[in-house]
Design goal:
The chain is α+β, with helices and mostly antiparallel strands. 53% of the residues lie in helices and 9% in strands.
């Protein structure tokens, strides 16, 4: 088997088959209905102010889809009782648009109000109440919230596509022509109109940031102060900060809005008989915000205010308001505050995403709660478990089995027929699961009596809403060898997997029961639809196929049908017939099951019925049973071994260890690919021998592969792998020893394939980070998709190739969490209802706390007295971790190295255990370094965990896979067509809130992004994001990926603030729950750095890139190619910031890594070296330019100083007193005495001319100042006195030097010229002499 590893991969054959299947479905769709993909536009005439609205529909849509759209629209969401009319004719609400005569492009459907009945009127009131409650709650949909709107600050795209640019250019040219014609307008108005267009066009073409800044400034001016504050909080990133759990939920930007004080059903209800004749349905007491209370009558015509009070009953119409068809219209007339509050709520809903108000198929409960709040609402007290739709539930319970089986009998020959069939199956399954969850909660809380109260409590069975419930416990000692009750829990899980497989096979004439498994408060409850007649006196427990021994939940139904005498007789004969296997095989059953077996790769095998010692041919596990109900349908039960047993786990305790169907399918494709490769090589060899005999030269290897092609006959001869489902079981096998050994060898080959190929490939992908699971959820998903059971966690952890800290931590956390879950369930089963919060908090403290000894024994004793359940007090941290260690060794064959969770992983493991157990805790910061980080007040709720069949549309899946395949082949047109068809099918089958619909939106967004349709891509991705939050969880890995993708799209379209808001939330979730060295961190940090770089925040971008480099060096090596890429990005950021020195250093490191890993001749190495050389040249040029600029600036500064001194001298000259005429021809000593202020010895003569005296004085004064400044200092080291003199000389010399050097500076030249006449030799001599 190892020799065939290099043969064509399974993925290649799967991709080819996917494409072929997708093309076949597309051809089928085109042949059946050419209008499926032809959407058209119609108008809806509404009774509201918006009037007529236009919507885009497809022929396969129904009127119910249009109603769903109107429910999502804030203007029409309050209207519930109406019908659609076309040309005055009423149309049934379940009609398909293609079947409506006259419904073509452009027609108008009219919403016409119709009369109410009690059900529709109550639904109308409930709808209004739910919408009003959204104004009082933290999120629009508290049962299944979405946080998307809290992190979204929508902007307009600043980067236009080529088509938008062409349109803008056309508009601009038209505007210019109009402006030329309108000459009467002033030039100021023209500049005002043209300026923004120039800026925007410049930005859109060249990426200039000025256009962005101007548009951003305009948007900022339109924001209110509250919006500006919210925008700043959302888009502000200060760096990498330590996240805290208390910041999990953002602050709600919207204040609570109240419409009415109360709205309750009046005490005058129910309606008396004589008022029913007038059309009254029920009465409401509504207290308005103004303080008045009105009594409202709900009638068939609508709603009106009557004249009743608490004391008197007067049902006549009050003159306060007229009769209105809608309740909100009536209240708007009588209450101004109601009108204002309702308008504000509808405005808030309109700002949210349209999917916010829509519920999912099943709600996903989050593990963190924002607060422990309970709002007073009397309606919650009056509402019962029974929903409005099931008013008469107790009197007329639903026949779930008939509702589940009837849709399977619908026709399925065409695509549209299959859509209708799948929609019915999906709808009834979701309703069955919802009812099963309610029933399981009631049973665990012991609120209803069992149908067999006299038996042991472990054997109790229940009937609630016509659904059969039983505990997943080993009540018949059938699983003593494989764990007892633990084996029974595993058996129920395997049975559900088997039901899924047989439903997927969808063989006509074979039926399975509606099944759901609910884990609640430590108990596992199995909910099943009733086999027709199983609880009546008819003998319907006759088994037509499989073993007669009933051991699982279906057997419990048969057991209940048996009489007490038969049960007693069976008990007496139990020991005698304990090991006898009685097996039957009805021919009709066998022929139908063979069809399913061929699809599930199960072979027809022979077993021996020990009752008569005869061989019986079966194609299922012998434990499975075939029963014919009184309705004539053939039911297959007890599918606990729908796939063969795992040959790598053959111990008695591993009897329920079976292979995953993905592993069998992958091995089958691998086996087929190997056989085809061998067949091709055989043909090639034959051809070469033939050519050799004929003397023809052998072709090249490429020509060989192209010439040799397999025929259809060869493909048809490819073997189909099938396995014996009864190997390694307790039944005696029939057939010869050779046949048995062949079956065993084939099954062991799958085990070898699992351990030798699938697991090594998984480890290789983990090491190369081709797949990067970040938590237990994603790890489970990755392993299951590859066909690897979770019991191989220990095998993977012990593999030397997986010895990486991140992988080891991930495997350790998941093994410990799974073991702790079993310990937790055991504790909860032995806990009283009043001690449930204490039990949960105590377990979490023992599991995740740290023993410090700070809690004294007296405090422990005092706390223990408050708890009634002894199991809580007996549990200690040491005892718990001993149990966990034993369970990990038993389940995963792995010895855990420590008896505690690493401190950095405790929050991750806390989330994991909460999701597995349905625990909801308060969003606060828990200190795991203490003995008791949790208290009973921190436990908010405990939700049931449900597993169900989860039906999916096969046509939608085929189209989705084909669309993915075409997308990978870059055939975008075909991919868009296929994905659009798949999305249309999912919307019709499951509704918009479904995981598969979210996957379609994600790939459609990628296609739009590839086609540069950024706005469309963002809208698609927003839809995918909200769906992911509602179906997977607020912090699921897929949700984080959806936020990241949306941020990248926004960045590419120029919505930088919006992009930062999303990435800020991604950064928080990744740092909070991703582990210290989560491989996703580096990519997220890189994305944030790119956004920050686009917004010119280079220092912060560089900090994030440094963190990226730190993680990459830890995960890989410092010389890895990923580090080279990060160094290159750091070089670019530094270069854009103007720091070329660091940029050159980083680029040099990047180049060195590339040359070391790829070689100097590699193109990437050459490009990196070229970029490095370019950076160096640019840095040198900039350095020289800066030196030149600095020199020029220095020269300018010196010139400026010289000019200032000249100007100061000129100003000071006017304040100098004129020299006496007597000193004009005096001696030097006289002049010095005059300067020093000494008395004069003789009078000076007057000057002959005033003009001559003034001129001489000015010249002499200038000469003296110049003489004083140019006096040289006698010592080499200047003193304080001489420094001031020499500085002027140096300044003057530098100025003169700069004047000669830079002749083009006019300021320097003028300054030098002005100082030239003052430098006289004789004055210098006199100064030096002095």
């Amino acid at each position: 088997m190892s020799e065939t590893i290099d043969n064509p991969t399974v993925e290649e054959y799967n991709e080819k088959e996917t494409v072929v299947a997708g093309e076949e479905i597309e051809q089928e769709i085109e042949q059946e209905n050419e209008q499926v993909s032809q959407s058209f536009q119609i108008s809806i005439k509404t009774p509201v102010e918006i009037g007529t609205i236009k919507i885009q529909v497809q022929p396969t849509d129904t009127l119910m889809d249009i109603q769903t759209f109107l429910y999502e629209t804030s203007e029409t969401c309050l209207y519930s009782s109406y019908e659609f009319r076309l040309n005055g004719k009423s149309i049934p609400e379940y009609s398909e648009l293609s079947s409506i005569e006259g419904l073509i492009e452009g027609v108008t459907l009219e919403m016409v109000p119709i009369d109410y009945n009690e059900r529709s009127a109550k639904l109308h009131v409930k709808r209004l109440r739910d919408i009003m409650n959204t104004g009082l709650t933290e999120f629009a949909n508290m049962n299944n919230p979405s946080l998307f709107s809290s992190f979204s600050f929508p902007e307009k795209s600043n980067i236009l596509t080529e088509e938008q640019q062409l349109e803008e250019q056309k508009q601009k040219s038209e505007q210019q022509q109009q402006q030329q014609q309108q000459q009467q307008q002033s030039e100021e108005k023209e500049t005002i109109e043209q300026q923004p267009n120039k800026k925007n066009n410049k930005y859109n073409k060249k990426g200039n940031k000025k256009g962005e800044e101007s548009s951003t400034t305009n948007d900022e001016e339109k924001l209110t102060p509250q919006q500006k504050e919210r925008k700043q909080k959302m888009t502000e990133i200060k760096g990498i900060e330590k996240p805290i759990l208390s910041n999990y939920y953002p602050e709600s930007p919207i204040a609570p809005v109240q419409c009415v004080k109360s709205m309750i059903y009046s005490g005058w209800s129910p309606v008396p008989g004589y008022r029913k004749l007038f059309g009254d349905l029920f009465y409401l007491d509504i207290t308005l915000l103004e303080g008045t209370t009105v009594c409202v009558t709900a009638s068939t015509q609508g709603f009106f205010i009557n004249q009743s009070s608490n004391a008197t009953f007067n049902p006549s119409v009050s003159p306060k308001a007229t009769i209105n068809h809608s309740l909100h219209q009536l209240l708007t007339q009588v209450s101004r505050l109601f009108r204002r509050g309702l308008n504000q709520i509808l405005a808030n809903i309109g700002r949210n995403h349209p999917f916010d108000m829509l519920p999912g198929v099943l709600p996903v409960h989050n593990w963190v709660a924002s607060s422990k709040s309970n709002r007073y609402d009397i309606n919650k007290g009056t509402d019962t478990f029974v929903s409005v739709q099931d008013v008469e539930l107790r009197g007329n319970p639903r026949d779930w089995n008939e509702e589940i089986q009837a849709p399977k009998e619908l026709p399925k020959s065409t695509v549209q027929e299959r859509i209708i069939r799948d929609r019915a199956i999906s709808k009834v399954n979701s309703e069955f699961v919802e009812c099963a969850v309610r029933g399981a909660q009631v049973i665990v809380d012991k609120a209803i009596l069992p149908i067999n109260p006299t038996e042991n409590e472990r054997s109790h069975m229940f009937l609630y809403n016509n659904i059969f419930f039983s505990y997943a416990l080993d009540t018949r000692d059938s699983f003593n060898d494989c764990g007892g009750d633990a084996g029974a829990r595993t058996s129920a899980n395997n049975d559900l997997k088997g039901i899924r497989l047989y439903n997927l096979a969808d063989v006509e004439g074979i039926y399975t029961l509606g099944t759901a498994i609910v884990d609640y408060k430590g108990q596992r409850i199995i909910a099943q639809s009733l086999i027709p007649g199983i609880l009546t006196t008819e003998k319907t427990s006759k088994i037509y196929y499989g073993s007669m021994d009933a051991s699982t939940a279906e057997g419990e139904q048969e057991k209940q049908q048996q009489g007490e005498e038969e049960q007693q007789k069976e008990g007496e004969e139990k020991e005698e017939n304990k090991n006898i296997k009685s097996i039957k095989a009805d021919p009709e059953f066998h022929s139908r099951l063979l069809q399913a077996a061929s699809l599930l790769h199960l072979s027809e095998s022979k077993v021996i019925s020990e009752e008569d010692n005869k061989e019986v041919s079966v194609c299922t596990s012998f434990e499975s049973k075939g029963i014919v109900g009184i309705d004539g349908r053939r039911y297959i039960l007890d599918l606990i071994k729908a796939t063969p047993r795992d040959p790598n786990y053959l111990d008695a305790k591993d009897q329920l260890a079976i292979l995953r169907p993905e592993a069998i399918a992958t091995y089958s494709e691998y086996y087929k690919a190997t056989w085809l490769a061998q067949k091709r090589q055989q043909k090639l060899k034959e051809k070469e021998e033939k050519q050799k005999k004929e003397g023809i030269d052998p072709p090249t290897a490429t020509a060989k592969d192209e010439d040799v092609q397999l025929t259809e006959e060869d493909l048809a001869q490819s073997p189909m792998v099938s396995f014996n489902p009864n190997l390694f079981s307790k039944v005696k096998l029939g057939g010869s020893q050779e046949e048995q050994q062949k079956d065993i060898d084939e099954l062991k080959a799958v085990g070898a394939f699992l351990k030798g190929i699938l697991i090594p490939r998984l480890i290789e992908d983990l090491m190369l980070f081709n797949v990067a699971p970040v938590d237990g959820q994603t790890l489970t998903q990755v392993m299951h998709l590859r066909g690897i059971n979770m019991r191989y966690l220990g095998f993977i952890a012990k593999n030397e190739s997986a010895n990486v800290p991140f992988i080891q931590d991930l495997l350790f956390n998941e093994m410990v969490s799974r073991a702790a879950k079993h310990c937790f369930n055991k504790l909860l089963r032995s806990t009283n209802a009043s001690d449930m919060a204490h039990s949960i908090s105590h377990f979490l403290n023992c599991f995740l706390g740290t023993e410090t000894g700070s809690v004294s024994q007296d405090e422990k004793s005092k706390k223990a007295k408050q708890i009634k359940s002894s199991a809580i007090n007996e549990l200690t941290q040491g005892k718990l971790w001993s149990e966990i260690s034993e369970l990990v060794a038993s389940k995963f064959d792995f010895e855990i190295p420590t008896h505690s969770v690493p401190m950095e992983s405790r929050l991750i493991v806390l989330r994991c255990i909460c999701l597995k157990m349905g625990i909801q805790i308060l969003a606060k910061d828990y200190n795991f370094t203490t003995d008791a980080p949790f208290s009973s007040e921190d436990i908010v709720d405990l939700f049931p965990i449900v597993k169900h069949v989860n039906p999916r549309s096969t046509d939608g899946l085929d189209l989705l896979e084909a669309g993915k395949s075409f997308f990978n082949q870059r055939k975008f047109d075909l991919a868009t067509e296929f994905l659009g068809e798949a999305l249309a099918i999912y919307h019709q089958v499951h509704g918009p809130i479904h995981q598969d619909a979210g996957t379609c939106f994600t790939h459609l967004a990628m296609l739009a992004f590839q086609n540069e349709q950024y706005d469309l891509a963002i809208e698609y991705q927003k839809n995918a994001l909200v769906i992911s939050e509602k179906t997977s969880g607020l912090d699921h890995h897929e949700t984080v990926q959806a936020y990241t993708t949306l941020a990248v799209f926004c960045q590419r379209s120029g919505r930088f603030n919006e992009s930062i808001g999303y990435m800020k939330h991604v950064l928080y979730l990744t740092d909070l729950l991703g582990g210290e060295y989560n491989p996703e961190r580096s990519s997220i940090y890189t994305t944030i750095a790119a956004i920050l770089e686009d917004t010119d925040r280079f220092d912060l971008a560089l900090d994030f890139l440094k963190q990226t480099l730190k993680h990459q060096e830890f995960l890989f090596t410092p010389d890895h190619l990923m580090c080279s890429s990060t160094y290159h990005k750091m070089a670019i950021v530094c270069a854009r910031a103007g720091n070329f020195d660091d940029s050159i250093i980083y680029q040099k490191k990047s180049t060195d890594i590339l040359e070391k890993e790829l070689g100097e001749a590699h193109p990437r190495s050459k490009e990196s070296l070229e970029f490095y050389n370019g950076l160096s040249q640019t840095a040198n040029q900039i350095k020289l330019f800066k030196q030149h600029q600095a020199m020029k600036a220095e020269q300018d500064e010196l010139a400026r100083l010289q000019k200032e001194k000249v100007d100061q001298f000129k100003k000071s000259q006017s304040r100098v007193s004129p020299m006496p005429p007597s000193l004009e021809n005096g001696s030097v000593s006289e002049l010095l005495n005059y300067i020093n202020g000494k008395p004069k010895k003789s009078q000076s003569k007057k000057s002959k001319s005033t003009t001559t005296t003034t001129t001489t004085t000015t010249t002499t004064s200038k000469s003296k100042i110049t003489m004083a400044k140019t006096t040289p200092t006698p010592t080499p080291v200047p003193t304080k006195a001489t420094t001031s003199k020499s500085s002027a000389t140096a300044s003057s010399a530098a100025t003169n030097k700069s004047t000669t050097t830079t002749k083009t500076n006019p300021t320097s030249s003028s300054a030098a010229d002005s100082s030239a006449p003052n430098s006289k030799p004789k004055n210098n001599k006199k100064s030096s002499k002095n």
